[in-house]
Amino acid sequence: MQSLLGCLVSYRPLAHASPELQSPVLAHWCTIACSVWMQRLLLLAGATSASAFKLQRRRVVSTMSAASSVIVETDATDAVKITIGARTLQRTAGEPLQKALGRLAPKQKKGKKKAAAAAPPPPPPRLLDAAAVEVDAATPLLKALSLGKWLELEGGRLPVALNPPTVVSVECYGEPTAGSPLMPLAELKRAEANDVSYRYSLDGEDCGTGAAFTPDDAAVGRSLVVEASVGDSCVTRDLGKVVPRWRRPEHDARVAAIGEPAGIRVVTYNVLADAYRHTWDAGIHTHCEPRYTTAERRIPMAIDEVLSYAPSIISLQEVDPRWWDRLWLPRLRAEGYDAALVLKSGAAQEGEAIAWRKDAWTPVESREIALSIGRADTAERETAPPPAIAAFLAAHPSAAEAMRRIGTVAQLVVLEDGEGRRLCVANTHLFFAGRATHVRTIQAALIIDEASKLCEATGASLVVVGDLNAENHDAALRYLLDGGVAADDPDWYTGSTFSWGYASSRRARARAVDAFAAADGDLDAALDAMDAAQSGDLAAERRTRAAASLRLVSREPPSGDVEELIAALTAGETYKTSPLVALFQMRADCGLRRGGLSLVDGELEAAAVAVESLRARAESAAAAGRAAQTALVKAAENEDVVGIGMKLAHSRKLASAYPRTEPYTNLAGNDFVATLDWILHEKDALRTRAVAPIPALEDVRAAHFALPSESFPSDHVCLVADLEWSAAS
User: Fold this and answer.
1) Residue 537 within any structural domain of the chain
2) Are 414 and 317 part of one and the same domain?
3) What is the DSSP string of 10-38?
4) 639-677 b/e with 16+ CB inside 10 Å = b?
5) Which member of 67, 345, 356, 624 lies 3.0 to 4.6 Å from 361 by CB, making a disulfide possible if both were Cys?
6) What is the spatial distance between Cα 252 and Cα 254, in angstroms, rounded to a whole number?
7) Angle in degrees, CA 687, 690, 693, rounded to 5
């Protein structure tokens, strides 16, 4: 027998036989003969299962395969889901048990008719209760499963679990990086987050457990897998290979410079909302490789940056709710913080957040206010504007429209320390449009008005933090730090030149589409139509568009024809994203008529001269407008609202933690450099002990050109200040 087996096992395909044995007919019959002899030999050797050769009349398909229990799930309907290993049945709660058991019985498939007799079938399935007594097969299914504790199936016995805690899936957002903690999130049914156990492995070797895991340098290049389990339910996920830790020399130097926290460490950071990614890739941040700006990479880096300072209070702007839930909040809670997020009004899916250390602060009261006036769909309540602001908006419809349409919000939280001292932290991100200086000043006044009421009610001292979109020379910041602005402040005139849609690339695109439609595709005629459509625009607005168009055309010289230009406009391209559209817009605003859609010699120089001329005209108009406003104010008798301006004042004495002359906090890829982010505090209650120095502008430009970059997750710089209570407080 053994020698015969050896002969059959050592059988070689005819491809290796001598040529005379390789005819197709001979090969066919040799194959059949070998198959028959192999089947008979296995039967003689006592093989009771010859399923590989389909010898049985009926083949049993096992339901028990890979099953350790029977999972029964119900919902608000009468549906009942039964899972046994890889097999799932969808049944109804009221059907008799015997019907479901019939579906669970092993399936059998017919085999060859002339084969040997089939093995006896396994006994039919039975459901047993806790006393091992069979449940009546006529019992309604859901009731039967509530009574049943064991299912006898195919000669085995499986425990029955009704609506057990289950891990549906596990996700881990963020690129696995050496030195950066990962916190997986499990989607659960009938379980709490604290019920989940996590286990980690590198290349199949266990390497850790717990809610967080930080790969070390030895893990770089190895595949990381996380397993989430609750009871018998378990799900794994491959997170990919661990990448090397981030190189951040500028950040490391800042952490070393400020040292350990001394007093109340406050951090404020505009973390660059991923919701606006379409605008970065279209031009504003094209200096940075897209792989460095993915949310999965940037946001964990920003979180690590904030937490590396061990702050007592954190304020964030441009926070995506999606990444707040998936990345920010789990990490903050794991590090001992409590936190709150408030979203802007309207379609913008981002907002502001405040977090505080639970071992240092107790929240006393919080308020969220909309910094709009008259908006119908505000995310938070609007406050009643002070009388002067109400009168100003009534007299200036353009300003009233802007205040009605903006979605800005502010977050106010009163915190109490262990000694009973209270801080009111006001966090916000003011309206961004450059010439809307009047809007930001009004918004700052609304914050101070509401914060003052809250401070008086709770006995708190005020700290104002955030991206104020205001530089040291802007009226909004001067209002906050100097205690007010006059009715003839220069920024009231600047604000008067703003209207909703000012220098809007989308409005300009719509005008261009209409111009080509009217010109029947003729380029020069379209330029004339565009010029007519823009005739009412102020020189300042034309200069803003022309300067932006000139920058793009200089950086990316255009090429194409009229059909390509029209196609770009139809596809939604604007002077901010398309060199062809930018060339058309530049010519329209600068009055250039050169023909064709490619640059000609001297055209960029001519455009630069035209932009400078528009700037001079705008400044001349501004000087005349401001002089007229000053004359009106002098003639008025202590009136709050005069002409295009108004007098605003407050009694909170605020100081800046950072020097007011700080060269920048925002460095974007479109040559925009400005100091927009601030930490302000009341002088009488608090003083600044230290700040984390901002990296030198020339060094950052030399190393990164602009922000964000490989080492900076946002186009803003994180501000860090140590404050301490004054002796008087």
Assistant:
1) yes
2) yes
3) T---GGGS-GGG--HHHHHHHHHHHHHHH
4) ebbbbbbbbbebebebebbbeeebebbbbbbbeeebbbb
5) 356
6) 5
7) 135
Q: For residue range 112-152, what is the model confidence (pLDDT) as tens digits?
A: 555 556 677 788 999 999 999 999 999 999 999 999 999 99
Clarify whether residues 434 and 526 are in a common domain.
no
Residue 694: both structure tokens together: 């901002």
Is residue 357 within 8 Å of 332, Cβ to Cβ?
no
- Is the pLDDT score of 482 beyond 70? yes
With a cut of 80, say whether residue 211 has pLDDT above it.
yes
Count: domains in the chain? 5
Task: Work out whether the CA dihedral 427, 431, 433, 437 comes out positive or negative.
Answer: negative
Which of 284-293, 299-308, 556-565, 701-710 is predicted least confidently? 284-293
In a domain, 28, yes or no: yes
pLDDT digits (tens, 9 = 90+) for 53-83: 333 333 344 455 557 889 999 988 999 999 9
Look at residue 41 and tell me whether its pLDDT is greater than 90.
Answer: no
Both tokens assigned to 715 = 């186009």
Residue where one domain finishes, among candidates 210, 241, 272: 241
Domain assignment of residue 570, yes or no: yes
Q: Assess whether 152 and 37 both reside in one domain.
A: no
Sole residue written with tokens 């030399």: 702
CA-to-CA distance for 521 and 515, rounded, in angstroms?
Answer: 9
Answer yes or no: is pLDDT of 636 > 70.
Answer: yes
CATH number of domain containing 188: 2.60.40.2700
What are the strands, taking DSSP E only, across 281-430?
Answer: 313-319, 337-343, 351-357, 362-370, 381-382, 409-416, 422-429
**408-446 burial code (b ≥16 CB/10 A, e <16):** bbbbbbbbbeeeeebbbbbbbbbbebebbbbbbbbbbbb
CATH code for the domain in which residue 701 is found: 3.60.10.10
pLDDT of residue 66: 58
Which amino acid does the sequence have at 589?
D
> What local confidence, expressed as pLDDT, does residue 282 receive?
59
At 538, the amino acid letter reads: L
The whole-angstrom separation of Cα 623 and Cα 490 is 9
Alpha carbons within 13 A on the beta-carbon side of 538: 22
Distance CA 105, CA 141 (A): 16
Question: How far apart, in Å, are the Cα atoms of 703 and each of 249, 260, 593, 697, 711?
Answer: 11, 27, 40, 10, 10
If asked whether residues 64 and 136 sit together in one domain, one would say yes
Same domain flag for 417 and 303: yes
Q: Domain range for residue 38? A: 2-47
The pair phi, psi for residue 477, each rounded to 5°, is: -75, -40
Q: 203 and 118, same structural domain?
A: no
Q: Which tokens in the block code for residue 220?
A: 């770089």
- Confidence (pLDDT) at 24: 42
Whole-angstrom distance, CA of residue 666 vs CA of residue 718 = 10
**358's tokens:** 């639970």
Tell how many helices (H) and how many strands (E) occur in the chain: 21, 33
pLDDT interval class at 283 (50, 70, 90): low
Q: What's 95's DSSP letter?
A: S
Same-domain pairing of 93 and 178: no
The answer to whether residue 466 sits within a structural domain is: yes
What are 551's two structure tokens? Answer: 């920058």
- Segments of 280-361 assigned E as strands: 313-319, 337-343, 351-357
What pLDDT does residue 149 have? Answer: 96
**Same domain for 236 and 173:** yes
Three-state SS for 49?
Answer: coil
DSSP-derived 3-state class of residue 474: coil
**Of 95, 130, 162, which closes a domain?**
162
The answer to whether the pTM exceeds 0.85 is no
